[in-house]
Specification:
Blueprint lengths: L1 E11 L2 E12 L3 E5 L6 H9 L5 E9 L2 E2 L5 H6 L2 E4 L11 H13 L13 H14 L17 H15 L3 E5 L7 H14 L5 E6 L12 E6 L2 E6 L1 H10 L1 H12 L1
Parallel strand pairs: 3-8, 3-9, 6-7, 7-8
Antiparallel strand pairs: 1-2, 1-4, 4-5, 9-10
The structure holds adenosine-5'-diphosphate and magnesium ion.
């Protein structure tokens, strides 16, 4: 079982962004993808999620034994792919609880014989949500708030983690979930992620900074630069980056390429 990306090439408005990216994420593994701004990290996340602006020119993506690129974004989510966006939007007038129940029904809802979604009963959903919220040490009041309206950076991220806990994805991609978080919020988000790790769930943590990796320990670290993974390693690669910055690794790689 794995998420397998083979020679992926993606362009935006005919400009090539991902230039042959390959990555193998086994089920249960935690991978970090690090890279400077503009290297194509978010493009990878959006292309995997199926955003229409991101044109897949070539390559393959296999989710277990299913060809992901042939699926709609909705089908990808039902297959167990989850993406936490870098810039969540506010949805006025929709409470967290309502939004989450709709999301759970859409992604996990069972179908009746007539093909209609029978959905999860409100009482059952409340219990499920209360369970997940206590697992994530969240205040119950939080579910009554309107989605992302007046949320602090930390609260938005928490809302995403709660959504992830309820959807129980197999492959979760977090795009710069750490950006703009103070240290307390970062700890809360990391604890949430750590409480959701396990043999049947993989994480791809996309980040510019090494900081979040002090709290979430990746099994593998990859450096993305100019649309390609130029180096892969273990945790030590992230700590090397913290000390040296990206410049050395990029220079070394350019030397090799010449
Ligand atoms: P990262 O997440 O690593 O900072 P992105 O994937 O967001 O990088 O961007 C990679 C490149 O694609 C950048 O050169 C950026 O300017 C370009 N790009 C990203 N999104 C768009 C877009 N919606 N329209 C045009 N160009 C874009
Ligand atoms: Mg980005």
């Amino acid at each position: 079982m794995s998420l397998s990306i083979k020679d992926l090439r993606v362009s935006i408005d005919e400009k090539p962004i991902l230039k042959g990216l390959s990555l193998e994420v086994g089920l249960g593994e935690i991978h970090a993808i690090m890279g400077p701004n503009g290297s194509g990290k978010s493009t990878l996340a959006y292309a995997l999620a199926g955003h229409p602006k991101y044109e897949v020119e070539d390559g393959e993506v296999w989710l277990d034994d299913v060809s992901l690129l042939e699926l709609t974004p909705d089908e990808r989510a039902k297959m167990g792919l989850f993406l936490a966006f870098q810039y969540p939007t506010a949805i006025p007038g929709i409470s967290m609880a309502n939004f989450l129940r709709t999301a759970v029904n859409a992604i996990k809802g069972e179908k009746n014989g007539d093909g209609k979604n029978k959905g999860i009963a409100i009482t059952e959903f409340r219990k499920l949500m209360t369970d997940k919220m206590s697992l994530l040490k969240m205040d119950k009041e939080f579910a009554r708030r309107y989605l992302n309206e007046g949320f602090s950076g930390g609260e938005k991220k928490r809302a995403e983690i709660l959504q992830m806990a309820l959807l129980e994805p197999k492959y979760a991609i977090l795009d710069e979930t750490d950006s703009g978080l103070d240290i307390d919020a970062l700890k809360i988000v990391s604890e949430g992620v750590n409480s959701l790790t396990g043999p049947n769930r993989s994480f791809i943590i996309i980040t510019h900074y090494q900081r979040i990796l002090n709290y979430i320990k990746p099994d593998f670290v990859h450096i993305l630069y100019n649309g390609q993974i130029i180096e892969s390693g273990g945790w030590e690669l992230a700590s090397r980056l913290e000390q040296e910055g990206y410049d050395n690794i990029i220079k070394e790689n350019e030397m090799e390429a010449v």
